[in-house]
């Protein structure tokens, strides 16, 4: 089977479903027509076997995750998905693998109306590169540089579950089967918080998605905004799942702060907008937890239940550390 | 050196130069603002060591080529470049390699005012994935499906030089040093025909870039348009360089038809627009050669100087063949 046949078989669907994708996969370029006056938000992520996923991963879960981590970047920008491109290097053509991968990929894409508009395939060590495109009205994007001293800091959902699953895989932590199934699902099929990102337009100041760990991704907001932050450890722990807290794991706080692969949002909003944040969370159907404040003084501080500063555990994940 | 430091050092430049890139590299997404009413053209390409380039390649040439092959897709669409994303998997952090790669990349990017707006880096087997974005007014994109029976078929520049260089590398063909330098340059630093693509808006019907070989890429136009074509072998040979023809290489025609890596344009235009095509070529500063016609009958035919049908040599390159 040739390269073009391979593409057609698994990835070329009917004509684009979206009216704002006048030309989809199969030409030199795809054509997109963002709504008049909207800006285009673009993000790219590359996933490598052994680094971003295990060789044993279910290909459907991988298809889901490869797109989810990209959609998560649109969510963090408050952008609405339009379409994405997919480039694949494959060590060999495995029909069953591709069918399963495509099923996981398209299930998530269809949930969010995000169209596959172009791609490339080649032989090589397994590598997936997706570039996602969305739209956002001028001035409403949630930029990392927009945090202001006095802002509240929030996170969506729960933190540290993906790290917990990884530790179970590594044999360092034991978990009952039901809990393992849940945290493994969180690691392999993260939920991009697109509805929350949209609902936070005009409410939140700065936002980022938590891919490398809360403390590391918050640090990017702080650096871009020229501010610092104080986090409250009990509040951070409140933003963890019962699966993580319930184990009595002494490293639950560390997993929440540095675990990585959460794909939740960390965002800041003025304290006068607490009701609006709560409304946005309800509208998006996801819990948010207020975990601290933005300070004028640079640096990231962590306070315990008694308000005493405690050391920040661990460090954010770095693909070249 | 951490991942973020690596990115900043080599790829993060001053604030975006383009006014229509309100937010460049460094946030969850970049923001682009295409001109009002224009459509967005998007293409992605993945390059793998040993498949698309040799391990011995000059990193500056690789930086050039990685972007050139993507810009070539915009050219084939008649689109004007806006920006691109770059995802890189690297086996290790090699500062000198990255500096040279970035130099080659940015030299070409700056020539065409195409801004690096986002990226990703990770450790892994060497892999480059670029996604390029451009803009084109609605209705003016040069689509593969737009060829009509009776259209002339043209190619830009010269064909087969990259293949000739590859054969010299492989030891199958001998070439004097000056000629080898020229054809190697053609292989390693292809010229995306962006000015020609723009000049052909409203003149050409269908277009594609020649990445896999003239006959294969023309076949995509024929399939998409539901037509056939007749090529004239002497005219195809006329669209080769003196370096290829001059060697008396008996496979010159085969290299021109199936060589690959040419990154010239193949396009069709009504015969009533021959003057306009000639004007577009002058405006773009590149030769174009008329090599045949589009037929209503499907299939691709090749005629010799006496008008007799001859067999099509070789086949187009397929990354999974």
UniProtKB/TrEMBL annotation, chains A, B:
Entries under SUPFAM superfamilies matching the protein: PurM C-terminal domain-like, PurM N-terminal domain-like
Chain sites annotated for binding ATP: 119-120, 144, 211
GO molecular function: thiamine-phosphate kinase activity
Binding residues for Mg(2+) 5: 212
Binding site for substrate: 52, 261, 317
Enzyme Commission number: 2.7.4.16
UniProt-listed Pfam families: AIRS, AIRS_C
Signal sequence annotation: none
Catalysed conversion reaction: thiamine phosphate + ATP = thiamine diphosphate + ADP
Keyword Cell cycle: no
Binding site for Mg(2+) 1: 44-45, 120
Class of enzymatic activity (EC top level): transferase
InterPro entries attached to this UniProt entry: PurM-like_C_dom (IPR010918), PurM-like_C_sf (IPR036676), PurM-like_N (IPR016188), PurM-like_N_sf (IPR036921), ThiL-like (IPR006283)
Pathway stated in the Swiss-Prot or TrEMBL entry: Cofactor biosynthesis; thiamine diphosphate biosynthesis; thiamine diphosphate from thiamine phosphate: step 1/1
Keywords: ATP-binding, Kinase, Magnesium, Metal-binding, Nucleotide-binding, Thiamine biosynthesis, Transferase
Domain PurM-like C-terminal: 149-302
Annotated positions binding Mg(2+) 3: 28, 73, 209
CDD domains the record matches: ThiL
Binding site for Mg(2+) 2: 45, 73
Positions that bind Mg(2+) 4: 28, 43, 73
Record function comment: Catalyzes the ATP-dependent phosphorylation of thiamine-monophosphate (TMP) to form thiamine-pyrophosphate (TPP), the active form of vitamin B1.
More info: Reaction mechanism of ThiL seems to utilize a direct, inline transfer of the gamma-phosphate of ATP to TMP rather than a phosphorylated enzyme intermediate.
Record family assignment: Belongs to the thiamine-monophosphate kinase family.
Name of the protein described by the UniProt record: Thiamine-monophosphate kinase
Species this chain originates from: Hydrogenophaga defluvii
Gene (UniProt): thiL
């Amino acid at each position: 089977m040739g390269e073009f046949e391979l593409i057609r078989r698994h990835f070329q669907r009917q004509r684009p479903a979206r009216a704002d994708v006048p030309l989809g996969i199969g030409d030199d370029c795809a054509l997109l027509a963002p709504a008049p006056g909207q800006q285009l938000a673009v993000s790219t992520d590359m996933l490598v076997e052994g680094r971003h996923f295990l060789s044993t991963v279910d290909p459907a879960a991988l298809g889901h995750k490869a797109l989810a981590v990209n959609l998560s970047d649109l969510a963090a920008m408050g952008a609405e998905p339009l379409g994405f491109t997919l480039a694949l290097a494959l060590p060999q053509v495995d029909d069953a693998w591709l069918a399963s991968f495509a099923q996981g990929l398209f299930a998530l894409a269809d949930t969010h109306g995000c169209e596959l508009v172009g791609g490339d395939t080649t032989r090589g060590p397994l590598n997936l590169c997706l570039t996602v495109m969305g739209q956002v009205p001028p001035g409403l994007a949630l930029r990392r540089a927009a945090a202001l001293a006095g802002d509240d800091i929030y996170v969506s959902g729960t933190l540290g579950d993906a790290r917990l699953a990884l530790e179970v895989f590594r044999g360092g932590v034991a978990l009952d089967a039901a809990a393992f199934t849940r945290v493994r699902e969180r690691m392999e099929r993260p939920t991009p918080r697109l509805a929350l990102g949209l609902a936070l337009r005009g409410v939140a100041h700065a936002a980022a998605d938590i891919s490398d760990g809360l403390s590391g991704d918050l640090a990017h907001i702080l650096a871009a905004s020229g501010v610092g932050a104080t986090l409250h450890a009990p509040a951070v722990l409140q933003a963890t799942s019962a699966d993580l807290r319930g184990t009595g794991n002494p490293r639950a706080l560390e997993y929440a702060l540095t675990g990585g692969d959460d794909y939740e949002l960390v965002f800041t909003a003025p304290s006068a907008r607490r009701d609006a944040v709560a409304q946005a969370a309800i509208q998006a159907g996801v819990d948010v937890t207020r975990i601290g404040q933005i300070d004028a003084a640079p640096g990231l501080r962590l306070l315990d239940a008694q308000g005493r500063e405690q050391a920040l555990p661990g460090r954010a994940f770095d693909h070249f550390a």
